[in-house]
Amino acid sequence: EVQLVESGGGLVQPGGSLRLSCAASGFTVSSNYMSWVRQAPGKGLEWVSLIYSGGITYYADSVKGRFTISRDNPKNTLYLQMNSLRAEDTAVYYCATPSPLSGAHDYWGQGTLVTVSS
Amino acid sequence: SYVLTQPPSVSVAPGQTARITCGGNNIESKSVHWYQQKPGQAPVLVVYDDTDRPSGIPERFSGSNSENTATLTISRVEAGDEADYYCQVWDSGSDHSYVFGTGTKVTVL
Questions:
Q1: Which residues between 1 and 40 in chain B have a beta carbon less than 8 angstroms from any beta carbon of chain A?
Q2: Does A55 contact chain B (CB < 8 Å)?
Q3: Residue B97 pLDDT more than 80?
Q4: From the CA atom positions of chain A, what is the Rg in Å?
Q5: In Å, what is the CA distance from B75 to each residue of A24, B58, B66, B72, B104?
Q6: What residues in B contact A98, CB-CB < 8 Å?
Q7: Is the pLDDT of residue B1 over 90?
Q8: Interface with B, mutate which of A22, A36, A102 (most B CBs under 10 A)
């Protein structure tokens, strides 16, 4: 059974940093595409970042240069390093598995809340 | 960047049919996916590749895609279908980005 469990969220001051983790089971992170998607309070879904199985990474313009997606293959875990955080980064962050063929995200974690506030 | 537009809300009586649209430029050239999200929960994929359903999703959920509009249709609506619904495509051009629609709140009267 595929399972994704996010952790690492919390309260951080503007300009601060946070690293989110997504522990996977039931499949191999390094063999799949992996996404981070966020949802600000009361708002819609926003794609944040993608890592291909080959390791190529992509970012939304809103986080480019500030966020870094990576993975630890032995730990079968996906990460999102978030630096220079802003109030508008406040959101629930989900990790998910997009199909490499169509982009449909078929498995999602439960999400972790990041609050950027002084 | 590619934009997907959905109506903010749709209201439907139990047993009737709900149709949720997703507008995008020449969207028929892309594969459209639909997600259901209930309060406090992660999104769930209900339709992928325009018309296909993941296992476990009722046949009442169906999709179509033509010209500039994709549509999610929920037949014989039940109280449990009340949720937010999002469309999504993969903009595999230079940005390699996933784009979500603005979301539609379905209210069962």
A1: 1, 31, 33, 35, 37
A2: no
A3: yes
A4: 13
A5: 35, 10, 19, 10, 16
A6: 90, 98
A7: no
A8: A102
Instruction: Rounding to the nearest 10 degrees, give the CA dihedral for residues B42, B45, B100, A88.
Output: 10
Helix (H) or strand (E) holding A18: strand A18-25
Output the CA–CA distances (angstroms, integers) from residue A81 to A63, A114, B80, in the order listed.
Answer: 11, 12, 37
Q: Would you give the distance in Å from CA B48 to the centre of its chain? A: 9
* Residue A13: CB atoms within 10 Å: 10
Residue B44, both tokens: 């769930």
Residue indicated by tokens 């992928």: B48
Q: In whole angstroms, what is the distance from residue B12 CA to residue A97 CA?
A: 32
Q: CB–CB of B98 and A35 under 8 A?
A: yes
Read off φ and ψ for residue B46, nearest 5 degrees. Answer: -115, -25
* pLDDT band for position B94 (cuts 50, 70, 90): low
Residue holding tokens 């309070």? A41
